[in-house]
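Lab meeting prep.
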Amino acid sequence: MDYYISMLFMLISGKGNFTAYYVVFNYLTDAVLIYIGVTKNRFKPSDFKLLGRTAAIFLAYITFRYLFLNDLSIKFFISDVNFFVERVIMSFLLCAVLRENAVYYIIKITIQLSALSLIFFCIQLISGPFMTYIGTIINLPPRIGNPGYTNIIFFTFDNINHLYQNSGFSWEPGAFGDFLDIGILMHFLINGFKYDKGAWILTAAIITTQSTTTYLCFAVIILLFLRVNGLKLTTLLLFAVPIMCVVAFNVPFLVDKIGKTWEDDQFNLNEMTRLTAWYQKNGGQLHLNRFGSFIYIYDYFGPIKLLWGVSNRYQDVMPAGEVMNISNGDIDFMAKFGTISMGFVLYRYALFIKRFLFRAEYIFYCVIIMVILGFGEPLFMFNTTLCFLFFFHYTNPKDFFTKKEERELLGYEPEEHEPVYN
């Protein structure tokens, strides 16, 4: 049962299939997790204290913001509360019920779905129409408003926008890449930073996404991998960095794509009034890329308001917000809940990382990975990301390493909560 509810949790998080578009599946997942927790005596008093502290901080924050900082109607406050109920509580329940196995199951399912995606991706490359035909036969709702979009629960194919990219169990390659990068990072944490079969499967899947953000973060993960395994920074600067620079400037979807994205965003921002008027009249959405999304929201709200955020429904406040398609997850989360909340999530994430990695340098790499991934996708809204609010409470390296392995890594017997890698 633990495995299957974890699978449902991951599919909802991936937002590539119908389970993510009907809130009933969120509540169904909550109900099943509560049932497992009660019938198998998984809940402990410390769980409710952790949830109570987190809820108190969140409710105090959004209440103070609503009453004293933002002049908005009650519907915006209700939307903020719904976010906690529908997303944060589900992430908490998964962690509280699965406890030390929560991290293990998320990694295991990510690897399994990645392996499955590689099979479907091969079919996609051989015959895109056949892959579309399979999705058409199953005909699962919805189609995300894209005529080329098909989904078979465990795999997504878009024969218009992502014909030669692997979208996996998410809605597009970049989002799938977020799950893969976080998955391989967590996999390295619990396997002692070894390149085993699971790591190779995740690496292969990362390559097939052809996602710029995914590749950039994967490069940071490899840097972390090499540093943890003893490679000196001077060696990296002499050999690895020049190689990465050559690759970045010669692979078309890295530096070249970033430049084109910047140019497209500048055009859209300069023509914003005309474009928004057209979309309001004719329907559809104006798609702002990473840079354009950041600049537009930052300029509209300003750094002070973005410090505490506006609301989960902040786009209702913006002129023509209903036709805007925001693609920068960092600024999106800042507008929803503020830079303060983003910092809180990263702090709890760092507490989890610190269970395994002690050096500030290593933790810095891990935080940078999250920020870069969030720049490309709404990472901080993913249910799996919200699990980092609670992982630190349930995860201990002793759950994944024998005493012998810990002694070999540290050179002596570690304390109860001492990080494995220092």
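Slide two material, second protein:
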Amino acid sequence: MQTTFTQETARVFETGYSQINALIVEMAPCTCKAYEDIFTYNRWQALGFQVRKGEKATKIKTWKRIKKTDDKTGKDKSFSIPRTSNVFCRCQVDEIGAEPAPVSVPETKEKPAEKIKAVKFHVTRSESGLVPDGGLEFATWQETHDFMQTIAQEEADQYGISEISAYCKTWVSIFFEDGEGYEDARCDIHGHALTGDRDLGTHIWEHCAFYAGDFQPKHMTDAEYAPYKPGGNLHVSDFVEFMNKYEIVKIKPAILQGEKNV
């Protein structure tokens, strides 16, 4: 159900402030500020502005809060589910009813520095039995992902695609151009990974975003996740810096064996 905004509610964000989304939208070559000059199409309409025809949106991950009554206890509980939102900055809109003015781009800022790339991937060990002593090394995200899909295929052959309770623990270290490393990351690989989005890059992103207070798992309530939000005792702000500095590549989900990859 689509939310209807007023001029007042268009500037209210019930799920709070997202540091990661702010970093993403403020990478545009202008001085527009997140939550002040950057809104969705419907929010801009409520504020009296129209997005110009042909303008391209920036996609961000947002959260929709859901309230549900527990059938067993009868108590209400709330949780959040992820969704994708398209946002536009002030440079992309005109006031409704006014003559479209020549586009005047605010003072530009320097182009963000290119993120530091990964140069080596070391799969150190795995419960699958496919990793020899000393581990295996790969040069790219894709090569590493393909190997982890081999493990997922074995899990699928043994437990089936839908059996997500059975998984194989596998550990991976990633090293970047500047010599820094994201070491010994544990990935739980199961057959469902063949059709889902559980690639290595997504796993790393979700792990960092979780501790940065910007990725709430479906099984956690708002109260349970509160300590990981900014200001909470389990919040780790360093992960925000890591995600902004280092390139994390997400690989599209693999297609089931026997189907055409398009």
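Talking points for slide two:
The chain has two domains: 9-95, 118-245.
Residues 29 and 173 are 34 Å apart (CA to CA).
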